[in-house]
Structure formats: structure tokens, C-alpha cells
Amino acid sequence: MGEICMAYWGVRLSYGHPISYFWIRIQVLNKASMAKKSVPRPNKLAVYLYIPNIIGYIRVLMNIIAFAQCFSNKKLFSALYFVSFVCDGIDGWCARKFNQVSTFGAVLDMVTDRISTACLLVILSQVYRPGLIFLSLLALDISSHWLQMYSTFLVGKVSHKDVKDSSNWLFKLYYGNRMFMAYCCVACEVLYILLFLLAKTQTENLMDVLTSSVHESTLLCSLLSLSVFGWAVKQAVNVIQLKTAADACVLYDIDKKQKP
Questions:
Q1: What is one cellular component GO term in this UniProt entry (predicted)?
Q2: Are 10 and 18 in contact (CB under 8 A)?
Q3: Distance between CA 247 and CA 243 in Å, rounded?
Q4: N or C end of the chain: which has fewer CB within 10 A?
Q5: Is there a contact between 87 and 32 (Cβ–Cβ < 8 Å)?
Q6: Residue 50: CB atoms within 10 Å
């Protein structure tokens, strides 16, 4: 009797009985579940030891050594600071290359960038007069990036570089073109390093140093010009970013109040 029943259901399944759909569906789900369970879940230590994150730790270490030597050895400071900045691009490439993109790595990268630039701007504010210029740049840099990150999470975006819905062409060009953004960032950091190297005392007048440097060397003049242009674009983007992010926060509150 049992064999007859098995034969009956075998025939029914083979001819497309409705129960065959559920039987096949169960088998597919079981296989998918087994495949999912077979993939090991990475532990916390594995994420901390991602290659781009290790590069991030090295960047932090280089910055600590650099700022510890900034006044006693300007050349060593400049070299370590610039190498750390270059590694900012390398860790992103490694993250994409080895499929090791992580939220922790992205935060580590941005925090390292902001702190290192902030420290250099604070030093420049103590070297040059008026120092308020560099402190203002520091405030703009921190506030614009913080607001941009916060507004990104509010609207549900994955990255703060996602500005496809922006109406500002410069903002979209900056974040949409990787090479252009890299140029502006490098130009900004190179300008700050050059200003630090050009300062001979701790009470320099900014305009006097720039004027004398322009007349001193054609190569230095060209380098300063290229750096100033990229720096100016980046500051303009920071202002646009600050306003755009602030608008996003305000619109979020308005939409939230209108919901029943």
C-alpha cells in the first residue's frame, strides 16, 4: 500500500500537481538556507583588521609622529603629513579592490582627515597673523562635513558623496568627478604645507609671506597658484555643502511635522 501511494504521488508530482510547486519551493528554500548558513559571519576583529583599516591606523600613527616633530623638524613633518594624506586615496582603493568596504573604515577615514587638517590649521593660526583666517577655515571645514554627514543619514543615503539630486553644478562636479575632487583636496593640503614651510618665525604676516614667495621663485609661484585655485574651489564647495546640508535638515523637520 505504501509503495502504491509513493508511486501515485510521484506520478502526480511529475504531471504538475499543485503540491509539486510547494515541494519544489521547500527544496529551494532549504538549499538557500543551507548556503546562507555555510557562509561564515565575519567577527569584529576581522573587520578591524581589514587592509584599508590597517592603512588608516598607520595614517593615525604617522600624523601623531608628524605633529610631534612639526616645529623641530619641518621637513619630516611635511613628508609624514603628505604621505598620510596620499594613503587616504590608497585605503579607499584597497577597500574597493579587496571588497573590504566598511562603515567603520569610512568613519575612521573621515575623522583622520578632519583631525589632521584641523591640527595643521591650528598650527598655522599660531604661526601667521591674522590667525583668525585659519581658525575660520577650520570651523568651515568641520561644520560643513559634519552637517553633510548628518543630513546624509537623515535622508537615508549611503554616502555623503551622493549629491545627484543637487542643483548646484560645482557641488555635483566636485563629488561626481573623482579626479577633480582629488586635485582640490591635494591642492588644499599642499597649500597648507607650503605655508607652514615658508614661515620662518611664529609671527609671520600672511600677505607678506605670499608676496615675497611669489617674487622669489617661478616654480614656487606656479605651485602656489595651482594650490590656491584648488583650495578656493574646495572652500566654495564647503560653503555650498554647509548650506545644502542645512536645507536638508530643515526640510526633514518640515516633512516630519506635516506627517499625521
A1: Golgi apparatus
A2: no
A3: 6
A4: C
A5: no
A6: 21
Mean pLDDT value across residues 114-123: 96
Q: Which amino acid is at 28?
A: V
Residue 253 designated active-site: no
Q: Are 117 and 135 in contact (CB under 8 A)?
A: no
Residue 221 burial by CB count (10 A; 0-12/13-18/19+): exposed, middle or buried? middle
Phi then psi dihedrals of residue 204, to 5 deg = -85, 145
Burial 155-168 (b: 16+ CB within 10 A, else e): eeeeebeebeebee
**What are 204's three cell numbers?**
609671520
Domain boundaries, the chain: 49-242
Strand pairing report for 128-129 and 204-205: parallel
Q: Catalytic: which of 88, 91, 109, 113? A: 113
Q: How far apart are CA 233 and CA 185, in angstroms?
A: 9
CA separation for the pair 233, 32 (Å, rounded) = 51
Identify which has the larger pLDDT, 153 or 140: 140
CATH code for the domain defined by 49-242: 1.20.120
In single-letter form, the type of residue at position 187 comes to A
Helix axes 103-127, 178-198, angle to 10 degrees: 30
